[in-house]
Design brief:
By secondary structure, the chain is of the alpha/beta class. It has a domain of 193 residues: Alpha/Beta hydrolase fold, catalytic domain (Rossmann fold). It has nine helices and ten strands. InterPro entries: AB_hydrolase_1, AB_hydrolase_fold.
Length: 282
């Protein structure tokens, strides 16, 4: 891999350009309101697709195969992955896990894309990122072209609460699942921030009856692609049928042996499905 730093660019942006035979990406920070948001841009197309990571996730931990491979499949797109405020390299600040943290992320993501002069965009949202994507598509329909979600839910069920309690202790995770996050945050901080996130979801379950975005999904007009790993251990079985019932104009694809991270486990197949969907003319 060859790396070059553009000396003419302000050091405050710290733009790093990486080139390989298959892709190009630029990683830098963008000032959005009071936040310095870290993003990775790959490809040079006029169309835009925003990649939204899962809980405590970041661009590289959650979307490396998409950053590297999607531009080849989508030459008319620029792929943009972000680290939400308080996650990954968008620190500081410390992550704020109030009752509105999903809604806050939605607002900041829309403002990010406007700041990049890309106010109309498609979204790939995984898990928590899928919740945020649903909120964006419901609250800001004029900004969303197409929507792709997987591992996402519109509310927190009692079964979800039990699932979360079972995965709270990161020491019980496999090294393969734990180590990428520990590289980003350090082992101690990762355990802390994961517990903060679990507490936040339990708080929403208690104080908002688990409602994440049940109102927003009824307002979504964007063409939507729901993907699902049938063996997803992080998602109560009721959520996909609920989304199918309340979303309009959706497409569905299931990975029979897939779990929560289908876009990583089946990256090549997943990327082709996404590219075909984004290139379809509605």
């Amino acid at each position: 891999m060859f790396r070059a730093i553009n000396k003419n660019i302000s050091s405050s942006f710290k733009i790093i350009v990486s080139v390989t035979k298959r892709y190009k990406h630029i990683e830098h920070k963008v000032k959005v309101n009071e936040f310095d948001i870290n993003i990775v841009e790959s490809g040079k197309g006029e169309n835009s697709v925003l990649l939204m990571p899962g809980a405590v996730g970041s661009s590289w931990t959650d979307f490396k195969p998409q950053i590297e491979q999607l531009p080849e499949l989508l030459p008319n797109y620029t792929v943009i992955a972000w680290d939400p405020p308080g996650y990954g390299k968008s620190i500081p600040p410390k992550r704020n896990f109030d009752l509105d943290f999903f809604q806050n992320d939605a607002r900041q993501a829309v403002q990010l894309m406007k700041t990049l002069n890309r106010p109309k965009f498609s979204i790939l949202g995984w898990s928590d990122g899928g919740v945020t994507a649903l909120i964006i598509a419901g609250r800001y329909p004029e900004n969303v072209d197409k929507l792709v979600i997987w591992g996402a839910n519109a509310y927190v069920s009692d079964e979800d609460v039990n699932i979360l309690k079972g995965v709270r202790d990161v020491k019980k995770w496999s090294a393969r699942m734990r180590e990428p996050m520990e590289k980003v945050y350090g082992a101690e901080r990762f355990a802390e921030i994961w517990n903060e996130w679990v507490d936040a979801i339990l708080n929403i379950h208690e104080k908002r009856k688990g409602d994440l975005c049940t109102k927003e999904i009824r307002e979504i007009r964007a063409r939507t692609f729901i993907l699902h790993g049938k063996k997803d251990p992080m998602l109560a079985k009721e959520h996909v049928p609920y989304l199918k019932q309340h979303l309009q104009g959706f497409k569905y694809h299931e990975f029979p042996d897939g779990k929560h991270n289908i876009h990583l486990r089946y990256a090549e197949e997943y990327n082709k499905l996404i590219a075909n969907f984004l290139l379809e003319k509605c």
